[in-house]
Amino acid sequence: MVVLRMKRMGRAHSPFYRLSAMDKRNPRDGAVIENLGWYNPTAKPGAQYQFNVDRVKYWLSVGAQPSETAANLLKKVGVDPTPGKK
């Protein structure tokens, strides 16, 4: 099963995350099928995230399950995180 989840990057005390389509069996920082965007919680508001909305919608349409955190971020962008809906 494919899941959309946040992959932690950056360094100690300076987190940076990538939204990735991954196989559910892979670890959080493991192999990625496709990188879909990024999220920087320490950046100024308005410049905290950027997502490839078309590809996110594609993965959701083919049944990818977003994690709870990824679903909350997708709602901020205006994407319905319910899998299978267009």
Topology:
Layout: E1 2-11, E2 14-23, E3 34-39, E4 49-51, H1 53-61, E5 65-66, H2 68-77
What can you tell me about this protein's structure?
- There is one protein chain.
- A five-stranded mixed beta sheet has the order 4-3-2-1-5.
- The protein is globular, with a radius of gyration of 12 Å.
- It has helices at residues 53-61, 68-77; strands at residues 2-11, 14-23, 34-39, 49-51, 65-66.
- The longest helix has 10 residues, at 68-77.
- With 86 residues, it is of the alpha+beta class.
- It has two helices and five strands; from the N terminus they run ββββαβα.
Task: State the main characteristics.
single chain; 86 residues; alpha+beta; S16 Ribosomal Protein, Chain: A; five-stranded mixed beta sheet; 2 helices
Mean pLDDT over all positions:
91
The total strand number stands at 5
- Assign the CATH superfamily: Ribosomal protein S16
Low-pLDDT residue spans: none
CATH level-3 fold name: S16 Ribosomal Protein, Chain: A
Spatially, the strands of the biggest sheet line up as: 4-3-2-1-5
Radius of gyration: 12 Å
The helix/strand class is: alpha+beta
- The CATH architecture name reads 2-Layer Sandwich
- Span between termini: 19 Å
User: Portion of residues in helices?
Assistant: 10-25%
Estimate the global geometry from the Cα principal axes. globular
